[in-house]
Amino acid sequence: MVVMNSRTKASPHLTRYALALSAVLALATAGCSARPQATITVDSGQRYQTMEAWEATAKMWEFDKQADRYNGSWLPLSEAILTKMIADGGINRLRLEIRSGAENPVDYWSQFRSGKIGYLGFKEHFYDKINDNDDPEVLNPAGVQFSELDFRVEKLILPAMRIAKQLGKTMTISLCYVDFRWTDTQGTLSHAKNPAEYAELIAATYAHLNEKYGLVPQELEIILEPDNSVDWRGEQIGHAILAVTERLERQGVTPRIIAPSTSIGRKTPAYFDALAKVPGAAEKVSVLSYHRYGGVLPEDVLKGIRKRADKIGAETGMLEYTHSDVDDLFADLTIANASSWQKYGITKVEDGGGLAPGNMLTVSDPESAQPDIRLMPTSISLAQIFRSVDPGAVRVGATSNQGWSEAVAFTNPDGRMSVTVKSELSMTQKALQKLSKHVDTPVPGPDGGQWVQVKGLRDGKYLVERSNALIGGGLRCTATVDADTPPRVYLRSSDVATLTQMKKGAPAKDAPCSSDSADWQ
Ligand SMILES: [Ca+2]
Ligand SMILES: [Ca+2]
User: Most-buried pick from 76, 350, 409, 521 (CB within 10 A)?
Assistant: First the structure.
């Protein structure tokens, strides 16, 4: 969740500047975009991390910030949206958030939903913590509010679990506590400074979800973005881990612990090191998590995160960055060895401001008879990988003999292979992509083009999907692999191609991949 990071609309001046820059760069780079053919070599004997989850946060557009009201216009569409999210988006874990202000005698969510208070009126109490009573061992049920949690479970979580099951996919749930400092009203209780009180709220949440829905989130993310909170630092996270795991164990629940989830990726190692100074806390962490905000995340930080995780036998996870792209995903997978990854939300509705970054899907005309629900252009290449790599897949070796192309490969639990090859941006695209992170300027389409052959794949039929990291699009074909003929894909700048081995006997629905580059334009 970012406050400072939202896109601003392009001023006409900046748009003109961008277009002029584009034209100049296109001229400057014309003719020098020739790239040599590349060969990717997959080595399935070289094994790295086991994959866990492709995650999204369980929210739609219920918070109508512009109109300062509750907006339930997505409810009639939720079945179609969630189906698209799972079938096309490849999402297999949802983050269910519980805000610290749930510990409060007043049910502000219900007031908000019924229109008694607006969004701002509700938001003011998001982190308004009032102790239920003075004993963390004895819960006063009137002192905690689960109406919003129940809404999310009933409208998003349970339907998503049902749809996933119908599609033969998995869907797991991560419970995540949030305690931002963005509101003036912070209440009279600090969960960070009172680990037993934190444990009481989380234990009450687990008990409630289990009693009411038979739902037991498999993961507990201790605190979302502690660097955006008043009191939560590494030491507090360490004490909270000890208190909550002990308390939940008494309840017969042992979720996998995710921490420290700092907003700024560069702060993750220091937060983790402070957490680890609390004896016994680090050993309880199953996923060492980070977000990617706060500027470029250097390679040595990603390596430092992986090293710390290795030491305690934990996985790593990059669990939020609204502006993330396939380059970030590759770096997280191959340098930090991330096992779980999240961009951010499920979907937003398109309004005059255009597409909302950070979402997997976009919806236009939600109240029409035929609303258009589709993958965001920048999510298509990510989803291509998510769909191809199942939980339990193992990342295997993949090297390229050319700097302009990179690959990441996996062996799925059923033995089917998956490899994704991407091509770097052209110079024009690089310049305009940087600009487009600040203003909404169109990024130019791909140019150039070259063949990449992929060696080391197991024999069989492969579905080949190619899209563009910046503008989306989509091309599908079928490749047949045998030892003598490695498959080839044709990549223009910023193209991303995923080859997914098909199940034995599965009919090939798409035409054979062409050997003529003109067919790949
Ligand atoms: Ca309490
Ligand atoms: Ca109590």
Answer: 409
